[in-house]
Amino acid sequence: MELFDKSGISRREFLKALLKGGVAVSSLPFALKILGLLDTPAYAELVQKMLVPYSRSLDNNRVQCLVCPFNCVLKPKERSQCFTKQNDDGKLFTYAFHNPCIISIDPVEKMPLHHYLPGAQTLTLSIGGCNLHCLYCQNWQQSQKRPEELKMAAKMDKDETLASLEKKGLKILAFNYTEPVVMMEWICELAKFVRPKGYKILIGTALYINPDPLKALLEVVDGVAVGLKGFTEEFYKKVTGGTLKPVLDGLIKVKEAKKHLEVVNLIVPTYNDAEGDVKKLCEWHLKNLGADVPLHFSRFEPMYKLQNLPRTPLKTLENAHKIAKDVGIKFVYIDNLAPHPANDTYCPKCNTPLIKRVGLRILKNLIANGKCPKCGEAVPGVWE
Fold first, then answer.
1. pLDDT at residue 129 above 80?
2. Where do runs of H (alpha helix) occur along the chain?
C-alpha cells in the first residue's frame, strides 16, 4: 500500500498542508524522505534555487555544469556529483542557496589561517554538498548529502546575513566545513552585498574548480585557505576522486590575484606521507607560491572510510615541518596537534616567537604594525 494516495489530494496540496500544519521547511527533508516525496517537483518548489551561470545547454534537454573539472553532463532531473546542481527542464540550477546546514562563530584559526587577523572571530556558513569525496572527510555527514536532505540551520539571504554580522559584531564572513566551490553562487551574492560595507570574506576550499568560476570567486573574497590534499595524481584519484593539476593551477591563480593565501596539507599515514612526495610538494610551493605563503601540515584523525588508519605520528609531522623549512618556506605550521612549538609564528629573520598558540587560541601576539618588535623584520600577512 502506498503512503501517498494518488487518487486523492495532490502531492503539491499535501506539501502545502504539511506547512500549514506547522511542519518547518527545515524539517521537510526527513518527513518527505519517509514518504518518498523528496525528489518530487512539488518539493523543489518549496526549496529556493538559482540558475547556475557557468553551464551550457546540450541536445535532448541535457545540460552541462562548467563550475568544476568534473563538468557533469546531466539529463533532466539528474543531480551533479557535488549534490547541489540539478537539471530542471534543460536549465542548470543550484540548490545550495540561502539554506546553510551549519552556522557557527569560529576563530579565523579554524580555517586555518594563521596570518590573517589572528584571534578574530568569523561568522562561518556552510551548505551540504562537495564535489570531492575524500575517504577521510571530517564533515561527511554534511558534505556527502544534498542540501535539502539536511536540516536548514536558518534561512540566510543577503539581508539576513548582514543582520547576523551586525548583531554579533563580526567583521568576517567565512565559508568552511563543506566546499565553497559548490555554493559559489550563494557566496558571490552574499559577498557582493556585504563586502562594500567593510566586511571581509574568507573561504576554506579544496580549490577543485574551473578557471572562469575561480576568477569570479576570487573577485569577491579576501583570503583563501586551500587544502592541497596530496602531491600525486594517484593520491587524488584514489582518495578524493579528483585530480591534482586543476588544484595546482588554481593555487597559482590565487597567488596571482594577490589574495591572502595559506596552504594546508593533511598528512594521511601510508597514503601521502612519503618524504619524497612531501619534499616535491614543498619545492613546488616555494617555486610557484613563494617562501612567504604559509604551509600547514595537519594531523590526520581516523574518520569516515579511513577509520582503520592510525593518527599521523608526531615524528611524521615534524619530519614534514623540517623538510619544508629546509626547502626554504619561511612559515611552516603543524595543526591538529597542540601544544607544539610549530603551532607558533616566528620572525623569519631573528626567530623571535611572535604569536603563541595553543590549538585555536591565541595566547600572545607581539606583531606590531606587521613587524617583529625585536628586529623590525616585516611579517607577511593581514594584521589589522
1. yes
2. 11-20, 28-35, 41-46, 140-143, 158-168, 184-194, 211-218, 233-235, 245-256, 275-288, 314-327
Instruction: Return the number of other C-beta atoms located less than 10 Å from residue 134's C-beta.
Output: 25
Cell of 309: 588508519
Cβ distance 367 to 379 under 8 Å?
yes
What pTM did the predictor assign?
0.88
168 φ, ψ (degrees, to nearest 5):
-90, -5
Give the pLDDT score at 170: 98
The per-residue DSSP string of 64-91 comes to: EE-SSTT--EE-TTPBPTTSSEEEETTE
> Grid coordinates standing for 364?
600572545
Q: Which residues contact 355 (CB under 8 A, 6 or more apart)?
A: 114, 118, 344, 345, 362, 364, 365, 366, 367
Q: How far is CA 264 from CA 140, 141, 158, 202, 377, in A?
A: 19, 22, 30, 15, 25
Whether residue 179 has pLDDT greater than 80 = yes
CB 176 within 8 A of CB 117: no
| pLDDT above 60 (res 3) | no
Other Cβ atoms within 10 Å of 361 Cβ, number: 12
| Contact criterion met (CB below 8 Å) for 373 and 383 | no
Q: Compute how many other C-beta atoms are within 10 angstroms of the C-beta atom of residue 369.
A: 10
Q: What is the pLDDT of residue 311?
A: 98
For residue 101, the Cα-to-chain-centroid distance in whole angstroms is 14
Q: Where are the domains of the chain?
A: 1-46, 102-365
Write out 145-201 in H/E/C secondary structure: CCHHHCCCCCCCCHHHHHHHHHHHCCCEEEECCCCHHHHHHHHHHHHHHHHHHCCEE
Nearest to 40 by CA among 77, 89, 91: 77
Q: Are 357 and 109 in contact (CB under 8 A)?
A: yes
| Total number of residues shown for the chain | 384
CA atoms within 13 A on the CB side of 152: 21
CA nearest neighbour of 304 among 127, 139, 111, 110:
139
What is the structure's pLDDT at 42? 38
What is the dihedral sign for C-alpha 252, 258, 259, 264? Answer: positive
Fold of 102-365: TIM Barrel (3.20.20)
Cα angle vertex 92, ends 12, 139, to 5°? 85
List strands edge to edge, sheet with 361-365. Answer: 345-346, 353-358, 361-365
